């Protein structure tokens, strides 16, 4: 009996050493910040990636393995859930692809990251790239979801699940606004409008185009409360303004108006300034400062 017992223990040790033990670990969750560190910008056209490092630990005999993943969504295309929609994403093996995500439990030939460990203890790392493609026009807010990575031992063509780990992904989407006009150049904030000879009256329309993924409103104020002031203090000349076809009361200190921006479409917003004929007005220059502020309502 004294001879048999140690020989049995030694046999068990050999059997354990013949096992391939694999462990999967994801370094951290992804807080996607984009190329400028402010999250996803619906107007940005530049592609950007967040890097994820996956560690695979091994003990025991030499063995082959592969890594694959699946998105935590019922949609065919991986998507993050947000306050009022979905934001599509992917996890890539290389920045140019292919994707490590597959709807199949075992993945497919393109989605598998393959490797091999020699006998003994060791660690290998896999770098993956989280991609949120540009050009997705979604409402502002936080979009989140999960990706599950699966690690399979792959000896003799019979894959066996060894470990799995979950990666959380959060993408903040800012409420953004784009305002353009052919008369107001890029980056320009001031515009002088010449109404011509006011004795004949005047009518001028300034066209804006607006795009936003949030509710938008305008705040408008007239320095002279709707009157063109004479340079030498002669009586002023009243004028009227319509925004989007709606007459505005410039006698108020501040006029606020909501604008309907239909999704990804650009909304046309004409601002019309009109002066009735002034045959008896004093000669000279008349002016007013009209301030229009476009506001994103979160």
Automatic annotation (TrEMBL):
Source domain of life: Bacteria
Protein name per UniProt: Spore coat protein U domain-containing protein
Organism of this sequence: Aurantiacibacter arachoides
Upper classification of the organism: Bacteria, Pseudomonadati, Pseudomonadota, Alphaproteobacteria, Sphingomonadales
């Amino acid at each position: 009996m004294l001879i048999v017992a140690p020989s049995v223990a030694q046999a068990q040790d050999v059997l354990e050493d013949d096992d391939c033990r694999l462990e999967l670990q994801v370094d951290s969750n992804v807080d996607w910040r984009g190329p400028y560190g402010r999250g996803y910008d619906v107007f940005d056209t530049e592609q950007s990636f967040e890097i994820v490092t996956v560690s695979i630990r091994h003990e025991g005999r030499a063995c082959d393995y592969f890594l694959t993943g699946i998105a935590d969504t019922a949609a065919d295309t991986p998507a993050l859930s947000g306050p009022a929609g979905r934001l599509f994403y992917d996890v890539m093996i290389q920045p140019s692809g292919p994707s490590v995500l597959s709807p199949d439990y075992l993945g497919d030939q393109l989605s598998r990251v393959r490797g091999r460990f020699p006998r003994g203890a060791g660690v290998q790392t896999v770098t993956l790239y989280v991609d949120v493609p540009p050009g997705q026009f979604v409402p502002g807010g936080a979009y989140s979801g999960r990706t599950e990575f699966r690690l399979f031992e792959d000896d003799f063509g019979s894959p066996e699940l060894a470990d799995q780990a979950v990666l959380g992904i959060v993408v903040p989407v800012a409420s953004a606004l784009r305002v353009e006009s052919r008369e107001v150049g890029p980056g320009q904030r001031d515009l002088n409008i010449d109404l011509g000879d006011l004795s004949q009256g005047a009518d001028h329309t300034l066209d804006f185009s607006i795009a936003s993924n949030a509710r938008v409103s305008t705040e408008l104020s007239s320095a002279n409360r709707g009157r063109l002031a004479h340079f030498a203090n002669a009586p002023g000349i009243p004028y009227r303004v319509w925004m989007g076809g709606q007459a505005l009361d410039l006698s108020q200190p501040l006029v606020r108006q909501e604008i309907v921006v239909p999704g990804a479409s650009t909304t046309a917003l004409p601002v019309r300034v009109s002066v009735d004929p002034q045959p008896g007005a004093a000669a000279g220059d008349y002016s007013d400062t009209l301030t229009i502020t476009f506001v994103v309502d979160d």
